[in-house]
Specification:
single chain; 3-stranded parallel sheet; two-stranded antiparallel sheet; 5 helices; L-rhamnose isomerase activity; Rhamnose_isomerase; manganese
Length: about 180
């Protein structure tokens, strides 16, 4: 493990070099701490999510979801994120995919509503964390083609999750095309 004194010494050397160019590294670091970092939900459970569904994940995702200690429930993932926040400095955001909704019954992704994220929202508000919502396009029963934005599929692809205000999101589909989704 790297000793803290070595890290501090290396920073002081770098600081001197940058000062020669008129750069105040302490000021830069302070500014960096003001930029929120959005941690992806799937980093806590290998993109398993918590939607109630049947069948294998498929969709070309090469994850096993079986690493030791992974979050098995949304509550465990929230606890893991709380622990992470004690270890990471600066502002913090949390990015949720659609499959991290919480519901006792299966919910078609086209029917996802804000109430399916009520516990996430309450948790985030309680901690002053911003939430970023992301669509989940893998695997979707009604996605019959890799051309997600093919005209016959457009209605399904554009049925997004509407939260408090309209938002535009650029999403790269599995065919490599990018199209803005506006809800």
């Amino acid at each position: 493990m790297i000793q803290e004194s070595l890290v501090c010494k290396a920073y002081e050397l770098a600081k001197e070099r940058y000062q020669a160019f008129g750069i105040d590294t302490d000021s830069v670091v302070e500014k960096l701490f003001q930029i929120p970092i959005s941690v992806q939900c799937w980093q806590g459970d290998d993109i398993g999510g918590y939607e109630k569904r049947t069948g294998a994940s498929g969709g070309g995702i090469l994850t096993t979801g079986n690493y030791p200690g992974k979050a098995r429930t949304a509550d465990e993932l929230r606890q893991d994120v709380d622990q992470l926040r004690t270890l990471v400095s600066g502002k913090f955001r949390f990015a949720l995919h659609a499959i991290y909704l919480e519901s006792e019954q299966p919910v078609d992704r086209r029917e996802i509503r804000p109430e399916h994220f009520a516990r996430w929202t309450a948790w985030a508000k309680d901690r002053g964390i911003g939430l970023d919502f992301n669509p989940t396009f893998l695997p979707i029963r009604w996605q019959r083609t890799a051309l997600l934005f093919h005209p016959p599929m457009r209605k399904s692809a554009n049925s997004g999750l509407t939260m408090q205000k309209p938002a535009a999101q650029s999403v790269t589909a599995s065919d490599g095309n990018s199209a803005p989704l506006v809800s």
